[in-house]
Specification:
By secondary structure, this protein is an alpha/beta fold. About 30% of the residues lie in helices and about 20% in strands. Helix 3 packs parallel to helix 4.
């Protein structure tokens, strides 16, 4: 854990920050938990459109969205579809299957569904996920960034933990009324899955977009920021921030394990490194002269990426 004495602003947008909130709020300027969530413009537009026009939720069949990341390495898309095919949900529900550029089972998914009772739409690597998310009546997903996006749009979720450290978070999500936890990746609770499809819990907490407040806090630190910015992750959400940074004259470095991530084309320099690759991030920091000075600003969706911050003490903005 980073020593909060050297932190000017810490942004921790995740549900499970209980273990560090007390320590950090006493020693530094920290924005944490649901109060620190922010979303790009496409989600605001989708939310307004759904409110004004009703989206596609007036269709005869309700839409269940499946989304398990860019590559779905544990085959959850296929496994969940097989479970649904053993049910009679097809007469009432349509499937919206969203996959990333490295998903390898597209032909298998089409083969499973084309002669089934389900009407379906297989969407590959969409540039604007918000317009698909907002039309969902329910989403079955792997816990991650998409959980917060669905929550902001008011869509109930059935969450699967794909990493052991996600289990605690998924259970807390259920406890506070933001979604349902239906099991670990290799131990999905079929009975609960079917029960919650019929009767999903509507969100008991209103998720807000705090981008204005966060930007205001960041602007207060402007004199501390230098010329190089490092973005951990290059997804659609990062694009507007990268574009603004470029307009201000910053040299923007980004890392993402997916070389086809949509924000990469806006970077000055890209490195194929995961946010979980601590040594790789440190190596990049040294190579690009990002490790320097005694102050830094850091925003992370995953708490895992906080650990290397002990060495990534920088006077640049880390997003």
């Amino acid at each position: 854990m980073t020593d909060s004495k050297v932190v000017d602003l810490s942004i921790m947008p995740a549900v499970d920050t209980d273990s560090i909130e007390k320590k950090w709020t006493k020693k530094g300027n920290v924005i944490f938990g649901l109060n620190s969530l922010f979303f790009d413009e496409s989600f605001d537009k989708a939310k307004v459109s759904a409110k004004v026009f009703g989206g596609n939720k007036k269709n005869r069949k309700k839409i269940i969205t499946l989304s398990f990341g860019g590559s779905d390495p544990f085959g959850l898309t296929k496994n969940i579809i097989k479970l649904l095919l053993a049910s009679d949900f097809g007469k009432d529900y349509e499937l919206q299957v969203i996959v990333g550029p490295f998903f390898k089972d597209k032909e298998k998914i089409n083969s499973l569904l084309k002669n089934s009772q389900f009407a379906y739409n297989l969407i590959v690597n969409p540039t604007d996920v918000a317009k698909y998310f907002v039309n969902s009546h329910l989403a079955i997903i792997a816990y991650g960034t998409s959980f917060y996006q669905f929550a902001y749009l008011g869509v109930p979720t059935l969450n699967i933990a794909i990493h052991s450290h996600d289990i605690k978070i998924a259970k807390k999500i259920e406890k506070i009324g933001l979604g349902h936890y239906i099991g670990f990746r290799n131990n999905i609770k079929k009975t609960k899955l079917f029960e919650k499809i019929h009767n999903p819990r509507h969100l008991s907490i209103n998720i807000r977009n705090n981008i204005g407040m966060i930007c205001a806090e960041i602007l207060k630190l402007e004199p501390l920021l230098r010329t190089k910015l490092l973005f951990l992750g290059c997804n659609t959400n990062q694009i507007p921030y990268i574009q603004e940074a470029k307009k201000l004259g910053y040299f923007v470095v980004g890392t993402d394990i997916n070389p086809m991530a949509p924000a990469i084309k806006y970077l000055d320099r890209y490195y194929k490194v995961s946010y979980e690759d601590y040594n790789g991030l440190i190596k990049i920091g040294k190579k690009r002269a990002l490790i320097h000075g005694k102050k830094y600003l850091q925003q992370e969706v995953s708490l895992l990426a906080w650990e290397p911050a002990d060495l990534l003490i920088t006077s640049r903005l880390i997003l």
